[in-house]
Please model this.
Amino acid sequence: MSFAGCASPPGPDGVISRQPWLDLEVPGERITTRHYHILTTAQDQRVVAELPAFLEASLERHRLFAGTNLGQPALPSPPGRMQLFLFANREQWARFTRATIDASAHPLLAIEVGGYAAGGRAVMFALPPAFDRLTLKIAAHEGWHQYVQRSFREPLPTWADELIAVMAEGFLVDATGNYRFEPLLNPERLDQLQSVLEMGRWQPLETILAGDPTDLLGTEPSRAVDYYAQLWALGLYLAVEQSRWLGVQRLLRDAARGRLNREVGGAGDDLGERAFRRYVSTDIRRIDEGYLAFARALVDEASAANASGSMPRYGSVPSTILRTAGPATLEP
Model:
C-alpha cells in the first residue's frame, strides 16, 4: 500500500512521518498519518503517542455511523488529510484561538475542558496525564465535527451533529490492544445526566432540537454540558428502536450527499425540528416522553448497580442496559 507524497507507509502506531513544527514561537511536532496532520506542542506527553492510532480508528468508526453500502462505510472518506491541533495547555490553545478566529471566538474561550472544530480543523489542548482518556474522548468528539465539515456536502442540523459527536466519545481498549468504540461507555455523560435529572434541569425535546452549544457557551456554559448529556441519552434512546435509528442514518447519508435541504424544505431557524420530523418521527411528544423515561431508567439502574458494588462506575454500564440499548453499538 502506498501513500501519495509520503516516503514510507505508516508504522504500527499509524505514523507516517514526524517533523518539527513551530507555532506562536512554541516548538512542537507535526505528525502525519494516513488521514491526519497532527500539530502538537504536547509532544512530550504520553497521550500524543496514542493519538495517531486512536484518530485513525475513530475516523473509521465515524464513517460507519450511517451503516454500510456493499460492505463499505456508507459515509465518504475525507477528501484529504485533516488538521488536528493539540496544544500542551489551555493558555497556548487560547492564544492560537484568538490569533486565528475573529470575534466569533469569544464563546469558544469559555471552554474550560474540551476543544472545537472550525473550518475543518480540530483545535484542542491536552489535559493532565491522569485524564488522557478524556483527552482522547475530546479528540473523537471534535474529530467527528471536523470530518463532517470536510466531507459532507451539507451541514447537519446541530442536534444531529452533536448527537453523533457525543456517541463517538465512548471507547475501550480490547485484549488485542485495539480501540473499540461503544457509545454507552461514557461515564462523564452519565454523571451529568444524573445531575440534570436530580436537579430538575431537564429540557424538553423541542428545546434540544433547537439548541446550539456555542450559543450556550457564550451565555450559560453550564447548560452546554447539560445539553450534551441529554443528547447522549437521546442518541441511545433512538438507537433502541431500529426504525428510529435508520432515520438518523438516512439523515447522515443525505447530508453527506447534499440532499438534506431538499428533503426538509431548505435551511432555516427550525431546521432541527423539521429534520427530526422528516427522518425520525413526527410525534415529538411521544418521543419526548419515552426519551425521558429511558434517561431515568438509565440513571436509576446505574445508580443501583453502583450502590451494590456490582460494577465499576468508570468505563462500564449495567449489563441489562447494554442489552436494552444493544443497537446503539451501531454495528454495520
User: Anything to note?
Assistant: The chain is about 50% helix and 15% strand. The radius of gyration is 20 Å.
